[in-house]
Structure formats: structure tokens, C-alpha cells
Amino acid sequence: MQDAAQQPDSHDVATIMGGLYGDGIIACKGAFDRAWVARLGQDIATLFEEARRRPGGALERGPNRYYVEAHPERISGFADIIGHPWVVAVCRAVLGPDYRVVEAGFDIPGPGALHQPWHRDFASPEATLKGRLNSLAFNITTVDVEEDMGPFEIAIGTQWDDLGGGDPMFPPRENWPRYEARAQRKLPRMGDISARSALTIHRGTANQSDRSRPVFVLGVDAPDARNADKHDLQLTRAYYDSLAPELREHITCRVVDSLENIVQAHTIEGLRMGVTT
After folding, report:
1. Could you give the CA distance from residue 225 to residue 71 in angstroms, rounded to a whole number?
2. pLDDT digits (tens, 9 = 90+) for 13-56
3. How far apart are CA 14 and CA 11, in angstroms?
4. Is this prediction's pTM over 0.85?
């Protein structure tokens, strides 16, 4: 594993806050080495095959596009992720010293996945409507993303858009030109980490290649956020006890004797069909 020391501004609070409160997304390039990411990719491939064999294990987020919640201890580098200096610095700067890890999972847009409609991942909480971010999503790609692989696209600065009076997650089509005008398409490489507000309007684009684009997702809350209610993070007692105390104190989870199948609660019905343009 590498750290972010080669990026002088990566831990700077003003840089972190400016990026997440401005564009709504920031990144740390080369945070992990490629061998580490390859192991993460192998773990995700194994967990995806298991999830697809289990009823409700893989949620459809559009044609040939899936989301799976994962048990942290099945991800061999989970402690590396939540303990990475850049991840810790971003969480502390934006969410405060008592931030909470509430979600671990992965997205897999496969060949033939369509454009998603523009959306945010959940309705804006009152805290953000008043001007404060209280949750973050971290993403780690397991492949070098190319233009034909359905890259993630984000409409910068739209985490503050108030969708009140309509669907709280899906803006009306007449607003799409605004998002297309602000869109940035992201082409991360193996080893990069990004952090974003899940409220910034975004979409996955059409995967026109013959390759999948798996990406690991870590969800983190401020103490007053309620996203843990949508997830069921579980750690066995042995794994929980193996983590360093400074990692354990930031995880909201059930500590169990043996892992149970996760019943995923965060379905997003509006993504199931996809769009052709």
C-alpha cells in the first residue's frame, strides 16, 4: 500500500473542503499499488458470483448493472482502506472527528449497461439543505477506466440543488441540460481513490466495451446522518477484535458470531430501466 504523501495538498483541510463543497468530488491519485488493487478486484469477483446465486444478493441498478453490499472482512484490504491517511483526513475534515463508516459494497456496470438517469443516491437531508455535508462516498476502481467502459459522470456543484416539490432523487428531464452542461466524466486508474457527496447529481454512462467496470464503495456518515439505517454492516467478533482501536471506534456495525446474508434495503427503483440517451 502507498499513502498520499506524494501529493502535498492531499491532506490540506482547505483543499478537501473546497473540493467537496465546490465541485462535490475530489481524488487521491495512486493511493494504493496495482497489486493491492488486483487483490481487491479478485475479492469483488468472488463476492459478485456468490451474490448472484443468492436471492436478493445483487441489486439491479439498470440493465446489466448491479450493486452488492459486502461483509468488510471478506474484503482483504478493508482495514487498509478505512485507515488510509487520505481517507481519514477527508472524513475528519468534512464529517468531524466522530465520523462513522456505515456501508461497504461494490458497483459492477457490465458490458451493455445503459446510461442511468441523472440522480442522487438519496434525498437531501435537512443538514445539507441548510448548507452542510454530513455524508461521503469513497470509490476505488479495480480497473483502468477507458471511455468505452461506461465511466462515472458527475454534474459538479449540484450537491446543493434543492429537488423539493418533485422526486427527491431524480430531477425532471427538463433539468437534464443543466447537468449535461456541468458534467465531468471520470477516468480513474487502478490505485486511485475518490471521495464525493452522494447528493451531487451523477450517473453511470453506457458501457460499450466487452469489460466490466467494478468499483468498491465505502459510505461514511457524520454522527447526525442516518444512512446506517439503510445498511447492515456486520463484523464477526474475531475480525472486530483484530482491528486497531482507532479503526473500530469509527465503524457502525453489528458484531456477530457468524456472518449472515445481507438483506439489502437501499433499493433505487428509478435506476432499474436505464435510458438510451
Report:
1. 21
2. 999 999 999 999 999 999 999 999 999 999 999 999 999 998 88
3. 9
4. yes
For residue 108, what are the domain limits?
16-271
Q: Encode pLDDT of 111-156 as tens digits.
A: 999 999 999 999 999 999 999 999 999 999 999 999 999 999 999 9
Whole-angstrom distance, CA of residue 75 vs CA of residue 68: 13
CA–CA distance, 59 with 262 (Å, rounded to integer): 12
Among 85, 113, 84, CA closest to 214 = 113
Q: Is residue 70 part of a domain?
A: yes
- Residue 224: half-sphere exposure toward Cβ, Cα within 13 Å: 10
Q: Which three cell numbers stand for residue 159?
A: 450537491
Say if 223 falls within a structural domain. Answer: yes
- Closest to 137 in 3D by CA, of 207, 216, 218: 218
Q: How many domains does the chain have?
A: 1
In a domain, 134, yes or no: yes
Residue 10 inside a domain? The answer is: no
